[in-house]
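Write out this protein's structure.
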Amino acid sequence: MPEFWRASGFHLLARNAAGHLAVSDDFLRAYLLRPEIHPIDDSCAAERSLHAALMDAPRRAVAAAALDAIADEDARDNYRLMLRFRDRLIAAGTVEACYAGLFRGDAIDVPPLFIDQLAHVILRNVLDARGQPTKVKLELYVDMTDGRNGGTWTKVTEYTDAGEWGKENTPCSVGTDPATLALRSRLLLKSETGRPELTVYFRHEYAVMLYRRLSVREIEPLRKK
């Protein structure tokens, strides 16, 4: 099955027995290929040598002298940041443990970009395709600690979306099919906005709900007719 979010780096990882993403050498190598780290034409011999050594063995220890030998100051700083993050990943063992650990200290010492990348690959693991590209497993987690120490997240439900979410539901108005596929070219003529149909739905019944810090992102764009 084609990978629908390759940029997340999910294809470089494998799940452990608990279903978490175990840090792999290939995942570590991906950070060595970033433009801030990969050697350029002006890179010195020491920088090129260090990069080649890490590509060969991405978990190898790097002595301070090896970093000090890099001629370019920005390159030295970039390596220090990347290696500090790499060491966090290795020590944590899984992407999820590394992400949670970032919020348990007194200060976050890695670039926001790296934090975003971890969040992307964790979400990709949650949005795990089951059997075919049209089926996506959705899992809902709730945190009742208001985010303290990275939050204590508990899975409350899961659902496999096969593209037939509204198949057996009652239409909300005459002429509306709840199972209609979302297409950019199709408008809801009876809607207030006349805009294309939603691909994300929020629904609750018989309860008062408070939504906080809610984020919804469309992983796969609406299909075109």
